[in-house]
């Protein structure tokens, strides 16, 4: 592991007197909790009131930026799309598709950059304006690095086209040229504009020779004395051999032609053709790739990679990719000239030129505060099959490690957790486990959010998590007295134990109130009734009541009997069931047959012999008395019914 | 489907609704409201889709929707409805119902009225001021009806401080959505999948029976289920859905009949797709589910979304008549799959929808 040089930054917690009191802290997945303790540093017993707050410290504030959120959302769509088409990517079109994905990512970064730029300009106070501007420059650096990686690693341009891509890369990142061009052209007398020669020089430095030629022709028109020289230089510009995309020249042909052209330029310089105009002479030197001349234009070049590309354009246009790093290193050294040391961005670009992907990613991870960039770039490069499996401490590869870090960061956000789910899905080794741990900890404030979370779990067959979430929701519902909700959650989780608990509550309510609440729920359970015995009992008992209400007495009677004999009735309910039999026994018609009456009697005696022993003496005796009376009445009614039933069954079927 | 514009808005959108156009006017929809959820600070915002041929100031796409104004909303926006041209009612996860007023001259929104304890839990275990999310709201000037996770139905009247009528414990489970059938009657759906009709003219707290209606009118109701099933109910005809169609792969969040072309139905779902069901047939004598009735048939078609437990016994013989007989054509409107599409609304030829990928999609050429 590399050591970081530089002191860690100190963050002061407002309100906490860190000189006097000690702080305590605890780590979270992406954040830290800090608060003041009552321990003093110096062992003196001071009882000043301390700071009453708990602070949350976040390192990654990018996740909370409004504009960067769009970046996260759009790139999530691109990421998921890439994983999905992975199977279809074969053969020649594969590279083209991957390049397209890379361009998509880049366009998202650019869109974000532009929006942030607008906001930075419109910002009312300078501090936030500065913050936005620095954010813009970070995004611009990210796009620069990504673009270079696209050219070198994804596009894998060979010698020849490589230079064209690098030229495009540089042109894309220097935008003042166009505005300057418009400025100068728009003025009355372009060649007399103060920035005219500056413009022409920049155009030549960027290899935009056609436009440079046009500028020169204006100069030629304006001052006839230099017309001749301008024409010659213009011709040189026109005849510079370049590799155009549709061209079928081979590289050797191009080299040969280029050599001729180069010699011609040298000849003109030797002949002092342009001696009369220092501007034109320096332009010629630039076109010869003269390093000293190029270095004179340091200000216009602005950075070493521009210098590198211009240098390559005019001295080694057919550079091969593997030779790039030599030129890169020397360009950097020449440009900086020992005055300043390379910045992190420079190191990253150098590593890219050296084709050291791991170094690029490592440096980016250190330099950037958010895992977004490295996670997506690494994933894309992995699809290009460029990353060998690089074993980290816990065995997963670098791509997975970075995606896990990024997704964990998303889960720490109150709203972006939904994006994190998809990232975990595409981490084969540790993704599922991480998702299981994270998804249980999402706070569920409304049922709609709970439904979304449950849908995510069910789609991935995470039954444990489904059960635990449903149990939490069911418990909340029970506490809020929403028994129907509680029951529907326990049915969804197929949680028999909880269904039993809720059914017991319903039955308890019935015992206390004498009627059922929430009939709509119990009446419509359907097959879910089978989930737990108690629930089945509840449903059947309600059915019994319905039968009684509809006067279907024989059905009611046999149901009641089966409820008692099938042992699904809870002990505490037996007395109620037996009492319920009373009105049926008192009916004019004989409802219970003799067999059934014998059964009932057996149940009654069973119950009477096994009555629970009450512990409290006072209440107990009263209750016992009431119960005894009821049982006596029952015995009487049963005996009478038995008599009538025997008579009825014994007599001929008459009426 | 051509010309669908997407815009990323940095907040997950829970509801989008078109502002109603004045009746009898030839205008098409040009403004919609959107509500966000799951943010530390949620917003209700108004957007305009502008006219054809307009380029906005930074050269954005013609027809790209622009933010007009927004206002902070406490809690998730669970439901949103336009009360009239200027007022919007929002239901919050904190149990509060708010009426926002839009001032077109300076393009701002302000709070016009608020009922903060519309929905709350009372139970042995809940603290005394425990709030319950308000899950659905429906308006019919001057009345507003709200339902919530506490199983309560409230009837408010604008400019009255207290609820005009409250039915406590209307349902033992969560009420998910509500809609008006006729003005004194509402229809609610709960989390176990039962539809109940309530009549506010009656005094009791029980749902009324299903009334028999004028024979020339049909009450066709569509509900979307937790399992993505689309059920069509005929409210006159008993307690089972008339047909069940297997539709999406995950919860269907919203179902809308097109208000002026009732042959067209739109559904959006947690699986990230938005479907357009086109049941219009060119053969006039073919009787279709949506087309019965004479000249007087007014399609009071309503959409309620949310769970319906499908029991095996409910799949009646009507199911087989649907796809073949009515030739329903289904098209998916969004260009690529995203995270859940939470809400949609249609008005005239315009459709707007909001997703959990923090994007709002608008199209103005539904029937091209």
UniProtKB/TrEMBL annotation, chain A:
> Could you name the domain of life of the organism this protein comes from?
Eukaryota
User: What's its job?
Assistant: Functions as a component of the nuclear pore complex (NPC).
The UniProt entry, under InterPro entries, shows: Nucleoporin_Nup85
Organism equals: Callorhinus ursinus
Q: What is this protein called?
A: Nuclear pore complex protein Nup85
Any single Gene Ontology cellular-component annotation: nuclear pore outer ring
Lineage, uppermost ranks: Eukaryota, Metazoa, Chordata, Craniata, Vertebrata
Q: What is its main location?
A: nucleus
The entry assigns this protein to a family as follows: Belongs to the nucleoporin Nup85 family.
Q: What does the record give under GO molecular function?
A: structural constituent of nuclear pore
Q: Does the keyword Nucleus apply?
A: yes
Q: Name one Pfam family in it.
A: Nucleopor_Nup85
Mention one GO biological process in which this protein takes part, according to its record: protein import into nucleus
User: What's the gene?
Assistant: NUP85
Q: Where in the cell is it found?
A: Nucleus, Nuclear pore complex
Keyword set, alphabetical order: Membrane, mRNA transport, Nuclear pore complex, Nucleus, Protein transport, Translocation, Transport
| The protein's assembly and partners | Component of the nuclear pore complex (NPC).
UniProtKB/TrEMBL annotation, chain B:
Q: Can you say where the WD repeats lie in this chain?
A: 211-243, 245-287
Q: Which domain of life is it from?
A: Eukaryota
* UniProt-annotated location(s): Nucleus
Q: Which SMART domains match?
A: WD40
By its UniProt entry, which Pfam families does this protein fall under?
A: WD40 (PF00400)
A GO cellular component annotated for this chain's UniProt record is: nuclear pore outer ring
Give UniProt keywords alphabetically.
Answer: Nucleus, Repeat, WD repeat
- Tagged with keyword Nucleus: yes
Q: Do the record's keywords include Repeat?
A: yes
- What InterPro entries does the annotation carry? WD40/YVTN_repeat-like_dom_sf, WD40_repeat_CS, WD40_repeat_dom_sf, WD40_rpt
Q: What is its main location?
A: nucleus
Q: Which PANTHER family match?
A: NUCLEOPORIN NUP43 (PTHR22652)
The identity of this protein, by name, is Nucleoporin Nup43 isoform X2
């Amino acid at each position: 592991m590399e050591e970081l040089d530089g002191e860690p930054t100190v963050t002061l917690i407002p309100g906490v007197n860190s000189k006097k009191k000690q702080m305590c802290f605890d780590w979270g997945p992406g954040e830290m909790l800090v608060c003041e303790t009552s321990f003093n540093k110096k062992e003196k017993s001071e009882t000043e009131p301390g700071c009453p707050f708990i602070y949350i410290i976040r390192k990654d504030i990018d996740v909370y930026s409004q504009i960067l959120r769009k970046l996260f959302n759009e790139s999530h769509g691109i990421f998921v799309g890439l994983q999905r088409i992975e199977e279809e990517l074969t053969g020649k079109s594969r590279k083209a598709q991957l390049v397209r994905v890379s361009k998509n990512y880049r366009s998202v970064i650019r869109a974000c950059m532009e929006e942030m730029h607008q906001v930075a300009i419109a910002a009312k106070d300078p501090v936030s304006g500065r913050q936005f501007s620095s954010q813009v420059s970070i995004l611009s650096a990210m796009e620069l690095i990504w673009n270079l990686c696209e050219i070198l690693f994804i596009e894998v341009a060979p010698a020849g086209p490589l230079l064209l891509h690098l030229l495009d890369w540089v042109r894309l990142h220097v935008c003042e040229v166009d505005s300057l061009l418009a400025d100068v052209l728009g003025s009355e007398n372009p060649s007399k504009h103060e920035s005219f020669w500056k413009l022409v020089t920049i155009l030549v430095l960027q290899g935009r020779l056609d436009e440079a030629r046009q500028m020169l022709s204006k100069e030629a028109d304006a001052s006839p004395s230099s017309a001749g020289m301008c024409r010659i230089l213009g011709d040189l510009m026109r005849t510079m051999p370049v590799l155009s995309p549709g061209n079928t020249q081979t590289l050797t042909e191009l080299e040969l032609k280029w050599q001729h052209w180069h010699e011609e330029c040298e000849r003109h310089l030797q002949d002092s053709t342009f001696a009369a105009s220092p501007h034109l002479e320096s332009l010629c030197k630039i076109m010869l790739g003269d390093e000293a001349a190029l270095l004179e234009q340091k200000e216009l070049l602005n950075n070493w990679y521009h210098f590198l590309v211009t240098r390559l354009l005019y001295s080694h246009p057919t550079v091969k990719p593997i030779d790039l790093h030599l030129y890169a290193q020397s360009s950097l050294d020449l440009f900086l000239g020992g005055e300043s040391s390379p910045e992190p961005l420079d190191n990253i670009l150098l590593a890219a030129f050296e084709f050291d992907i791991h170094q690029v990613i490592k440096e980016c991870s250190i330099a950037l505060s958010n895992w977004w960039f490295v996670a997506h770039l690494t994933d894309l490069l992995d699809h290009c099959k460029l990353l060998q499996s690089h074993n980290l401490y816990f065995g997963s590869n670098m791509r997975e490690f970075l995606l896990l870090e990024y997704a964990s960061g998303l889960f720490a956000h109150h709203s972006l957790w939904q994006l994190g789910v998809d990232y975990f899905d595409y981490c084969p080794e540790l993704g599922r486990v991480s998702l299981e741990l994270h998804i249980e900890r999402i706070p569920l404030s409304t049922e709609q959010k709970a439904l979304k979370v449950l849908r995510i779990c069910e789609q991935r067959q995470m039954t444990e998590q489904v059960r635990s979430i449903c149990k939490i929701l069911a418990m909340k519902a029970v506490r809020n007295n929403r028994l129907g909700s509680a029951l529907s959650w326990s049915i969804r989780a197929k949680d028999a134990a909880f269904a039993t608990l809720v059914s017991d509550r319903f039955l308890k309510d019935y015992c206390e109130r004498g009627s059922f609440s929430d009939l709509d729920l119990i009446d419509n359970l359907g097959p879910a009734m089978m989930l737990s015995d108690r629930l089945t009992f509840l449903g059947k008992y309600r059915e019994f009541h319905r039968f009684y209400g509809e006067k279907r007495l024989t059905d009611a009677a046999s149901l009641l009997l089966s409820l008692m004999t099938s042992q699904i009735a809870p002990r505490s309910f037996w007395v109620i069931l037996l009492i319920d039999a009373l009105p049926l026994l008192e009916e004019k018609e004989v409802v219970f047959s003799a067999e059934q009456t014998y059964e009932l009697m057996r149940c009654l005696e069973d119950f009477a012999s096994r009555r629970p022993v009450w512990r409290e003496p006072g209440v107990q005796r009263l209750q016992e008395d009431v119960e005894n009376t009821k049982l006596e009445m029952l015995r009487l009614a049963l005996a009478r019914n038995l008599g009538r039933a025997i008579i009825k069954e014994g007599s001929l079927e008459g009426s | 489907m051509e010309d669908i514009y997407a815009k990323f808005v940095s907040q997950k959108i829970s509801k989008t609704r078109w502002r109603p156009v004045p009746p009898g006017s030839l205008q098409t929809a040009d403004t919609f409201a959107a509500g966000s959820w799951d943010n530390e600070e949620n917003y209700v915002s108004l957007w305009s889709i502008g006219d054809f041929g307009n380029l906005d100031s930074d050269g954005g796409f013609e027809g790209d929707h622009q933010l007009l104004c927004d206002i902070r909303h406490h809690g998730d926006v669970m439901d949103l409805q336009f009360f009239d041209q200027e007022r919007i009612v929002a239901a919050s996860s904190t149990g509060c119902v708010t009426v926002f007023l839009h001032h077109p001259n300076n393009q701002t929104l302000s709070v016009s009225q608020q009922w903060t304890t519309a929905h709350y839990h009372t139970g042995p275990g809940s603290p005394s001021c425990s709030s319950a999310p308000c899950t659905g709201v429906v308006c019919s000037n001057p009345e507003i009806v709200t339902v919530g996770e506490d199983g309560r139905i409230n009837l408010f009247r604008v400019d009255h401080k207290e609820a005009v009528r409250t039915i406590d414990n209307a349902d033992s489970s969560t009420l998910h959505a509500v809609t008006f059938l006729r003005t004194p009657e509402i229809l609610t759906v709960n989390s176990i999948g039962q539809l109940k009709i309530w009549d506010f003219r009656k005094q009791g707290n029980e749902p009324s029976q299903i009334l028999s209606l004028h024979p020339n009118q049909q009450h066709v109701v569509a509900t979307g289920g937790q399992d993505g099933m689309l059920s069509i109910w005929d409210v006159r005809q008993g307690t089972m859905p008339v047909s069940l169609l297997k539709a999406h792969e995950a919860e269907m969040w919203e179902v809308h009949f097109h208000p002026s072309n009732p042959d067209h139905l739109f559904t959006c779902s947690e699986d990230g797709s938005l479907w357009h069901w086109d049941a219009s047939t060119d053969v006039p004598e073919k009787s279709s589910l949506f087309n019965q009735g004479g000249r007087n048939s007014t399609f009071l078609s309503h959409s309620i979304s949310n769970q319906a437990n499908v029991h095996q016994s409910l799949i009646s013989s009507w199911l087989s008549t649907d796809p073949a007989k009515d030739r329903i054509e289904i098209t998916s409107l969004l260009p690529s799959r995203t995270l859940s599409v939470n809400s949609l609304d249609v008005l005239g030829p315009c459709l707007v929808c909001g997703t959990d990928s923090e994007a709002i999609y608008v199209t103005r050429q539904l029937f091209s």
